[in-house]
């Protein structure tokens, strides 16, 4: 296990703690909670941050390092990640979308946040929140969705390998094959580095189980229940998240607007806070 999975990252201008929250009878998730040192900022509505499929903190370090000094941040590592604790043998049903959405709702309940919060999410994290908001499981004041997925598109060769009943010791080769596939498709160097680091840090069996379900999943056509202010962030250079699908999601969420940024990598950097704060000030 890589060292970036161990302990809460030490960041400036804030106090942080690491917690494992029991979201169901057999699953506990790791949560990072940061509060600014500045007492006047501690009572601001917190940001619930839900990153993408298998995403590791290091990819978000530049943005979060700047953000934690400005308002409370709660960073949730979802159940497909290596940090999640499973007390029983995993099954594919452990990675249904309803499990992901209920996890977020349970963490909000346990932390007693009620609806006084804002969301920031990426990729799978955005899809989880959109599904949960549409189904009435998750509520808040606003949400920023970076590159949400209408569906999860895997190349044919990956689908075949994911479905095959291969022994666990072969799974690391599947991850290496996925790294090769991503590096062929992604053009942004920063995004390429993030995905390589993410894929090589995974619990192989967990990633395969979640992929088997996600390759069949599609967001609902009707997203009209999502009535809070939403920003959908996309970049023309992002080849992993289809622009047409992202635009379709934005069209179907009533109170949403599209914000285009120079690149997917830019949305992980401290400079992106300017767009985030502009959005929050506009609502």
Describe the structure.
The chain is globular, with a radius of gyration of 18 Å. Helix 2 (97-110) crosses helix 3 (124-134) and helix 5 packs antiparallel against helix 6 (189-200). It has helices at residues 61-67, 97-110, 124-134, 156-163, 171-185, 189-200, 204-214, 243-252, 273-282; strands at residues 14-22, 27-36, 47-50, 73-76, 85-86, 118-122, 142-146, 230-234, 256-260. The protein has one domain: Alpha/Beta hydrolase fold, catalytic domain (Rossmann fold). The mean pLDDT is 87. The termini are far apart. Strands 1, 2, 3, 4, 5, 6, 7, 8 and 9 form a nine-stranded mixed β-sheet that branches. Helices cover 35% and strands 17% of the residues. Strand 1 (14-22) and strand 2 form a beta hairpin. With 283 residues, the chain is α/β, with parallel strands linked by helices.
Number of domains: 1
Q: What's the CATH first level?
A: Alpha Beta
Content-based structural category: alpha/beta
Topology as H/E string? EEEHEEHEHEHHHHEHEH
Count of alpha/pi helices? 9
Distance between the termini: 41 Å
Instruction: Give the overall average pLDDT.
Output: 87
